[in-house]
């Protein structure tokens, strides 16, 4: 049970379109396209706005008032469904930012959960499965399973009943006027989100709580849900991914051997959908991307920690680096001091590209973790980035760009070491031989190993062949999937102290000024 603003809560009932998924705009587009095809004119925004939250039957009755009794609403809706499904299957369901984090917190608080949507079950199930959120819900009640659609309270009453709960024990999440009236009349603890339609006074009067977006709701929930606390060694990373991409600029001992773990754990509820990490070490890049994961070895505890949602990119590939800066919400700068000045040029290009982008997502601030054990490292980094920006743009834009983002100093005890190229080379050769043996195709020819640090040309060719061979033949369930690629050795006592200046860090559990 969750105590939320003095309300004892045992269930959570979610509307789907407009609340969890940003599909109302898509629906408007497909209905306009379908109506244009079938009746020669697009459905008006006025009509579509009034349809928000209505059942199919109620929407058809409204269409008859707008366009005449003979309007082929069923055919238009069917065609719109086809266009919408094609888009979703090709591009995925557009999920509201922060949704996964909210669902994880509610589920881990022990709540029973259901979807109460005006959409047909066939559509609802496909969308929930496509968005990978079906797993959070105990049941669905859909528009084709009730006699009276929203704004009638039947759908929420039925969902609460199926969960064996009273409506007043349930949070009810909605975005439309018809939906919030339905939840209010059902007697639930109503939560209203802003979507296409700006909430009017009537809608707000029906809502016990109003949030502009999921992140506002997430912040409110976090006041009443216990933090997960510091992870223990051998504690599994969260299994659900949020919608965030994060970056590590410098896949070295600290970047790959420690920061990647922090980012993989995230807030204990979810983890980023993707971690991008840059390096100029071709062997590390090819190895990690071939295996799809790597491990950090804790020798004192006889434990290997696997990192499996990280992609290594080429630090000399400008396009890949720009994409990291365009897509990431957080970037850890794990660079040696002598590299800051030269790498600042890449950072400046990425920040300018993000600033110039028309995509509103790219205009959100980046949180920078500056992993450089130096007093006032932040000011050194800012100085070089500012100088690099001035080579690309004018002073006003440079100052504006730097003011948009959060730069946070950190202190890390450096107790991580990475394998030398020769050690990794030997490891890969052993794993390749095991792989070939598993396929009953062991190559008896062995290349002589060296204790030197750098690889010879022959060794580079050999390891390229090994990686190409394993990558080309790898299939799920084969031996390679279970081969841990050990890249780093770490001590277990690894505190990181972070200057918490970013809302994103607060969401991750960086309380006060430090995270231990």
From TrEMBL:
SUPFAM superfamilies: HAD-like. It comes from the Bacteria. Transmembrane segments: none annotated. Signal peptide: none annotated. InterPro entries: HAD-like_sf, HAD-SF_hydro_IA, HAD_2, HAD_sf, PGP-like_dom2. This is HAD-IA family hydrolase. It comes from Acinetobacter colistiniresistens.
């Amino acid at each position: 049970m969750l105590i939320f603003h003095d309300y004892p809560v045992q269930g959570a009932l979610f509307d789907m379109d407009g609340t969890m998924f940003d599909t109302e705009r898509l629906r408007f587009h497909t209905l306009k396209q379908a109506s244009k095809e079938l009746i020669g004119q697009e459905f008006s925004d006025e009509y579509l706005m009034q349809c928000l939250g209505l059942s199919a039957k109620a929407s058809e009755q409204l269409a008859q008032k707008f366009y005449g009794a003979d309007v082929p609403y069923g055919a238009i809706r069917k065609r719109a469904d086809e266009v919408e499904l094609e888009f979703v299957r090709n591009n995925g369901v557009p999920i509201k930012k922060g949704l996964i984090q909210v669902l994880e917190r509610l589920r881990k608080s022990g709540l029973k959960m259901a979807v109460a949507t005006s959409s047909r079950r066939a559509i609802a199930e496909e969308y929930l499965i496509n968005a990978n959120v079906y797993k959070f819900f105990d049941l669905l009640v859909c528009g084709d399973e009730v006699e009276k659609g929203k704004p009638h309270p039947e759908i929420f009453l039925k969902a609460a009943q199926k969960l064996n709960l009273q409506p007043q024990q349930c949070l009810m999440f909605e975005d439309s006027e018809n939906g919030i009236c339905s939840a209010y009349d059902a007697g639930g603890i109503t939560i209203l989100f802003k979507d296409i339609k700006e909430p009017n006074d009537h809608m707000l009067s029906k809502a016990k709580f109003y949030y502009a977006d999921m992140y506002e709701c997430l912040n409110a929930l976090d006041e009443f849900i216990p933090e997960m606390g510091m992870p223990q060694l051998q504690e599994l990373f969260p299994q659900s991914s949020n919608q965030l991409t994060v970056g590590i600029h410098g896949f070295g001992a600290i970047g790959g051997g420690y920061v990647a773990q922090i980012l993989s754990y995230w807030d204990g509820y979810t983890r980023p959908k993707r971690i991008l990490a840059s390096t100029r070490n071709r062997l590390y890049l090819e190895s990690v991307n071939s295996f799809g994961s790597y491990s950090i070895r804790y020798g004192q505890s006889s434990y290997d920690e696997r990192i499996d949602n990280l992609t290594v990119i080429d630090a000399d590939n400008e396009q890949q680096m720009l994409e990291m800066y365009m897509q990431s919400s957080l970037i850890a700068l794990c660079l040696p001091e002598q590299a800051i000045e030269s790498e600042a040029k890449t950072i400046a290009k990425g920040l300018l590209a993000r600033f110039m982008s028309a995509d509103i997502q790219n205009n959100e601030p980046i949180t920078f973790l500056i992993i450089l054990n130096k007093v006032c490292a932040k000011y050194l980094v800012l100085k070089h980035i500012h100088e690099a920006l001035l080579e690309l743009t004018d002073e006003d834009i440079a100052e504006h760009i730097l003011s948009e983002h959060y730069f946070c100093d950190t202190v890390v005890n450096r107790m991580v070491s990475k394998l030398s190229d020769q050690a990794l080379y030997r490891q890969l050769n052993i794993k390749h031989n095991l792989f070939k043996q598993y396929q009953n195709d062991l190559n008896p020819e062995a290349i002589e190993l060296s204790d030197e640090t750098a690889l010879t040309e022959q060794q580079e060719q050999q390891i390229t062949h090994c990686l190409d061979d394993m990558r080309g033949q790898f299939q799920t369930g084969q031996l390679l999937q279970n081969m841990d690629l050990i890249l780093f050795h770490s001590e277990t006592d690894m505190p990181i102290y972070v200057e918490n200046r970013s809302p994103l860090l607060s969401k991750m559990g960086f309380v006060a000024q430090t995270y231990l």
